[in-house]
Design a protein that fits this description.
The protein is of the alpha/beta class and about 425 residues long. It is built from 13 helices and 16 strands.
């Protein structure tokens, strides 16, 4: 095994803790190619806490820092940074890491706006550094299988995609900052997962119509500790109520370049019965898609009434193979279902992201989710926001070029990514 790539964890909150679990899973595998040597966070209590957790999980305590520049200067063999700060600071923190000469893996979304993505892509190119987006849903084995089923023609030509989720009521979702315009809001911070999956499974997008809403003007603290309970440490610091500034629901009509039509809803303010539907209809059949990280199998429905939702599904996806590390972690290279608890699945998938980063640095390969890929995801995510305000359908290039930005412009101006318009 080649010498391990030394990296720093930049951002020591709930997502940082989840990433640490991912590194622990990689450490336990036979293919570990990364080594945590430093942690960095403006909040030194959080940084020291994560360093203590790292010592328990990885066997050595990383050095603790409060700023990237000092860390890069004092750890001369440091090669990479894993950025897991809040969405609103991704562009600034990842930019500082790149300018310090570090390769970067950044949590999704790559930045809080498309212009933030542009900044990071340009900086990575100029500094000749790897820029990878930690987009985990597509790395789930069942999602890999789903893509193979579609590409291998199990349902023929895809015609209609329904990708919908409605739930959430007036509860604070995970953390208060996920409801604020300048730090992303839930349809951006969480919705970008769906944007990536829509592109990953069904191809590039030609046009997007859509609208967004801010339904819940006040949200309540329900005591939820977030995915896997990973945010319990910060729960006592959350207020009883918050007043969101970012939209909390997204409704979109998508035309894919293939000609397929998609209906996408990501509504985090739904009351009553929760609604979740993911299905694709093609010229030969349909697929009931599986929720990422659930391990639940997909179901193939054919015109003769046949329903395939067991191991026979592999017969319809001959191209499907997991990477060697994923096969080791999930128990085979052609896994069609699995049964692990959420935190275990989360860690296994994050381990594959880390491993890929190490290999990209070592071999100068391109990551699967490049900065450009992450930017396309965010452009699709913001398209309904901007289309609703402009009253017309948009291409993703409309967003990447800055031609369509009424919702994002305020954020870009506040963050210094765009000069305010002259009065």
């Amino acid at each position: 095994m080649p010498e391990r790539i030394k990296y720093a964890a930049v951002g020591c909150g709930g997502m940082g803790r989840r990433h640490l679990n991912g590194m622990a899973a990689l450490y336990k595998s036979s293919r570990c190619n990364m080594e945590l040597v430093a942690v960095c966070d403006l909040n030194q209590d959080n940084a020291n806490w994560l360093a203590d957790e790292a010592e328990k999980l990885l066997g050595a305590r990383p050095k603790v820092y409060a700023d990237v520049a000092t860390m890069a200067r004092e750890v001369p063999d440091l090669q990479a940074a894993d950025v897991t700060t809040d969405t609103g600071s991704h562009h600034a923190v990842a930019h500082a890491c790149l300018e310090a000469g570090l390769h970067v893996m950044c949590e999704k979304p790559l930045a809080v706006t498309v212009r933030g993505c542009n900044l990071l892509i340009d900086t990575a190119k100029r500094r000749e550094r790897v820029l990878s987006v930690a987009e985990n849903y597509r790395r789930d084995p069942v999602q890999r299988l789903t893509r193979a089923l579609i590409q291998d023609g199990a349902i023929g030509d895809v015609r209609v995609v329904i990708y919908q989720g409605v739930s959430g009521r007036d509860a604070i979702q995970i953390t208060p900052w996920r409801h604020m315009k300048h730090t992303g809001s839930m349809p951006i911070d969480a919705g970008v997962h769906s944007a990536d999956m829509l592109r990953y499974l069904f191809g590039e997008v030609r046009l997007v119509w859509g609208e967004t809403r801010l339904h819940e003007k006040v949200r309540r603290n329900t005591g939820s500790a977030g995915p896997g309970g990973m945010y319990a440490r910060w729960l006592p610091t959350f207020p009883d109520t918050i007043e969101p500034t970012g939209d909390d629901a997204l409704y979109a009509h998508i035309t894919f370049q293939s000609g397929a039509v998609g209906q996408w809803i990501h509504d985090t303010a739904g009351h009553g019965r929760a609604h979740s539907v993911r299905v694709a209809y093609g010229s030969k059949g349909s697929l009931d898609l599986s929720s990422p990280r659930s391990g639940k199998p997909v179901a193939l429905h054919l015109d003769d009434g046949t329903v395939v939702n067991d191991g026979r599904i592999l017969e319809y996806a001959p191209s499907y193979r997991l990477s060697p590390l994923a096969a080791e972690l999930f128990g085979g290279e052609r896994v069609w279902t699995y049964s692990f608890d959420f935190n275990d699945v989360d860690a296994k998938i994050l381990a594959t992201e880390y491993h890929e980063l190490g290999e990209c640095i070592r071999t100068n390969a391109r990551p699967e989710v490049t900065g450009e890929e992450g930017r396309l995801d965010l452009a699709l995510n913001y398209a309904p926001f901007e289309a609703g305000r402009l009253g017309r359908p948009l291409t993703l290039d409309d967003l990447i070029s800055g031609r369509a930005d009424p919702y994002q412009r305020e954020v870009d101006e506040k963050l210094g990514l765009l000069k305010p318009a002259a009065v």
